[in-house]
Amino acid sequence: MKKRTKIIIIAAMVLLLGVTGYLNVMLNNSVSSNNDETATTSSYFQTYRSDRESTRDQEMLYYDAIISSESSTAEAIATAESAKLALIDQMEQELVVEGLIKAKGFEDCVITISDSNVNAVVKAEELTSTEVAQIVEIIQSQLETGIENIKIIPVE
Predict the structure, then answer these.
(1) Cα separation of 14 and 104, whole Å?
(2) Is residue 121 within 8 Å of 87, Cβ to Cβ?
(3) Residue 152 in 3-state DSSP?
(4) What is the rounded distance in angstroms from the CA atom of residue 122 to the CA atom of residue 120?
(5) Per DSSP, what are the bridge partners of residue 150?
(6) Residue 150 contacts residue 120 (beta carbons within 8 Å)
(7) Domain ranges of the chain
(8) CA pair distance 102, 52, nearest whole angstrom
(9) Could you tell me the strand order of the sheet in which 109-113 lies?
(10) pLDDT tens digits, residue range 109-139?
């Protein structure tokens, strides 16, 4: 091939590469601007669940380490076993309540249970009094907690 033909081919390839990069950036921007709002809310629930799962996995590893350690006292082993069982029970309760709230027609929710409070983060722009009553009824029936200890937070 002649030198001039090689230069034209290389210039055309560089031009096509530049056009491809430009189109890629423009298409990604248009897609992400359309999905920003839904991605933020969905990613909140996904991120929360992922963080909660990794934290609990770490807690389980700590409890297992205490239980299996030869240097642990009988009291420490019993405490670790009790805490592990309590954590498993809490995980099951949260899963059941989340499932029941979703079954009432809510798109997504996350439940956190502490010693004194229950927090429900529900995917909704705002909640009507009927919807709040449904959520409170589910939480009270499943967790036997007073209404003063329930906090419901709508998240768009």
Answers:
(1) 56
(2) no
(3) strand
(4) 6
(5) 118
(6) yes
(7) 38-155
(8) 19
(9) 109-113, 118-123, 150-155
(10) 999 998 889 999 999 989 999 999 999 999 9
Q: Span 56-65, mean pLDDT?
A: 92
* CB-based contact 132:100 (threshold 8 Å): no
The CA-atom distances, in angstroms, between 76 and each of 57, 60, 84, 85, 87 are 19, 15, 12, 14, 16
Cα 143 from Cα 62, distance rounded (Å):
27
Q: Has residue 51 got a pLDDT over 60?
A: yes
Q: In this predicted model, what pLDDT tens digit does every residue of 62-100 receive, in sequence order?
A: 999 999 999 989 999 999 999 999 999 999 999 999 999
Residue range 38-155 forms a domain whose CATH class is: mainly alpha
- Which residues are CB-contacts of 71 (< 8 A; sequence separation ≥ 6)? none
